[in-house]
Write a structure and sequence with these properties.
By secondary structure, this protein is α/β, with parallel strands linked by helices. It has a single domain, classed as HUPs (Rossmann fold, 3-Layer(aba) Sandwich). Helix content is 37%, strand content 21%. Strands 3-2-1-4-7-8-9 form a seven-stranded mixed sheet, with helices on both faces. 32% of the residues are buried.
Length: 178
């Protein structure tokens, strides 16, 4: 089987221990392959189903909010990226899978890396494992905290030779049954 080529890894920003570990993994993967790391951020937190995008703001207030959030994001992740310059930042307009799918279609990433804070985590309105399982591209979940664990959807499991995750350190995500 031919290994697909890729030129960018997507990472969804999350200020947490698992988010930091996911960023470190995504950065290591992009460094190893000499490719772009695109950090996606959102006005409403896709990990928090109760968070909603700000409404009722004037155009100038919204612009200021976006600039402030991006500045905070860049300061946080630029220091973590160190001397690696192939890091981009992109604001996603909504916190659902559709926005990430659009980014995939325009080749902003081919592999998606997400921090997994632990059992019961919601991402983009559904359990994070269900999101990863159903996403159309390779997804790597890093975490939960305190565990050197990676969960891979079936697309990611097929390209683990590219991902470089040692055997025994990852588990394939199975369909969620109720």
């Amino acid at each position: 089987m031919a290994t697909p080529t890729f030129n960018a890894v997507g990472f969804c920003a999350h200020y947490s221990e698992s988010g930091d570990r996911a960023f470190d993994y995504a950065l290591e993967l992009t460094r190893r392959h000499g490719i772009q790391l695109n950090v996606f951020h959102f006005l409403s937190d896709p990990w928090d189903p109760t968070d909603e995008a700000p409404t009722g703001l004037s155009h100038d207030e919204m612009k200021r909010l976006v600039v402030d959030r991006e500045r905070e994001l860049r300061m946080y992740y630029d220091s973590r990226a160190g001397d690696y310059l192939e890091v981009g930042f992109r604001l996603c307009e909504n916190n659902e899978w559709l926005e990430l799918h659009r980014c995939l279609l325009v080749h902003e990433f081919q592999i998606l890396v997400l921090g997994n804070p632990g059992p019961g985590t919601i991402f983009a309105g559904k359990p994070i494992e269900e999101f990863a399982y159903g996403f159309v591209a390779p997804v790597v979940l890093v975490g939960p905290p305190g565990e050197e664990q990676f969960l891979l959807n079936s697309q990611a499991a097929m390209i683990n030779d590219v991902l470089g995750i040692p055997e025994g350190a990852w588990t394939k995500i199975e369909p969620v049954t109720t």
